[in-house]
Amino acid sequence: MITLKNIVKAYDVKRGSGGSDGSSGNAVDGLDLEIKKGEFVALLGPSGCGKTTTLMMLAGLLKPTSGEIYFGERLVNHVEPKDRNIGMVFQSYALYPHLTVRDNIAFPLRERKMPKPAAFERAKEISRIVQIDHLLDRKPAQLSGGQQQRVAMARALAKNPEILLLDEPMSNLDARLKLDVRDEIRKLQRELGVTTIIVTHDQEEALAISDRVAILNGGKIQQYAPPHELFSQPVNLFVASFLGNPPMNLIPGSIKQDSNGIQSIVTKGFSYTIPATRQLSAEHIGKAVQFGIRPHDISLTGVSDPEAIPMRVDLIEHLGSGKLVKLIDPAHQLNSMIRLLTDNENAVSSGDTVYMRIRGDKFHLFDETNNGSNL
Ligand code: ATP
């Protein structure tokens, strides 16, 4: 339905030969993306990674420096925003303060020369769907943040757009309301079947709401996949460390194999025997890696066994739903703590010696010599 082919956007700023990190300096740098009809896709990444620039190019408010944007078979690079059949909700909502809710929602229809009675009828209809039909005579200043958000959604949807573009649409709402609005947007999107692209820097929001998430960094897509896949099979160190709260533990180490063919990951603080289910091919032996383990994939036991790694509890943080335990290696050789999540029933306390186990074979190895790609 939507195809972005090798999109580059260079803003008109003199930046020398590129970024100090060796990047090209382009805001968007060779982006390929396909979005299916009716799909809900999030563009997620740190500040400045090119999310908004990409959305603006989809909206037609910015032109790509090179590359092609297709809606279906139609090349839209030079199609004006008003002719793209899109609805857009901005972070600021951008409602007209002097107009009533009814006039705000009807505005894009009137712009398209729809007669007033028909436009108002449609405004009423769509306001019922987003449950603000009792507010039609009010002005934006007389509405709560959540209500303004719904008016912005209603206005974006009034034209029955094929594509809905959302730029951080929930960032002005408080945490509780955000959850409600998030569910509503998702439900509405499913009902209407409108292809939707949301820009957000809130990973929880992106993962909760989307069919697929594109993780961007430095104007490039790092990984484009369903939420569970991004989490369980991150393609590189960037995706692995960007997603997850508390973040993935990353411990520098190397891969060794002894004369009996037993493989292990050797770090400064401990060695971990790689289970049979995860044996590595010969080319990886000797490689420098980052050993990645998510905090919820570590469990603790009070007793030693050959697979458990001795550690000392340094700190415990109570999270309400459970505890965040921070471990240090007994000989203080690791440069960082290892974090794990445990339930409230676990009676672990600071100073305890404990044994750390990695659940099943849930760990990741990132190749230091190959841009942190997942082995
Ligand atoms: P944020 O989450 O902070 O909004 P973003 O991922 O949406 O960030 P963009 O706004 O797309 O990022 O910006 C990408 C890059 O392009 C950044 O380095 C930014 O400084 C630069 N940039 C954005 N707009 C302009 C502009 N009008 N002129 C020059 N450079 C710009």
Unreliable spans:
16-20
Briefly note the CATH topology name of the largest domain: Rossmann fold
Please trace the helix and strand order, writing H or E for each element.
EEEHEEEHHHEHEHEEHHEEEEEEEEEEE
Molecular shape: elongated
CATH class of the largest domain: Alpha Beta
Count the E strands. Answer: 21
User: Which CATH architecture of the largest domain is right?
Assistant: 3-Layer(aba) Sandwich
Pfam family, one: ABC_tran
Protein name: ABC transporter ATP-binding protein
Keywords: ATP-binding, Nucleotide-binding, Transport
GO molecular function, one term: ATP hydrolysis activity
Would you mind describing this structure in some detail?
The protein is an alpha+beta fold and 375 residues long. The chain has two domains: 236 residues, Rossmann fold; 126 residues, OB fold (Dihydrolipoamide Acetyltransferase, E2P), CATH 2.40.50.140. It is 22% helix and 31% strand. The chain contains eight helices and 21 strands. The protein has a six-stranded mixed sheet with strand order 6-7-8-3-9-10, with helices on both faces. Strands 13-12-11-14-20-21 form a six-stranded antiparallel sheet. A hairpin with a 5-residue loop joins strand 20 and strand 21. Helix 2 crosses helix 3. The longest helix has 18 residues. The radius of gyration is 25 Å and the shape is elongated. About 1% of the residues have low confidence. It binds adenosine-5'-triphosphate. Adenosine-5'-triphosphate (ATP) binds next to helix 1. Pfam families: ABC_tran, OB_MalK. Keywords: ATP-binding, Nucleotide-binding, Transport. This is ABC transporter ATP-binding protein. It comes from Paenibacillus albus.
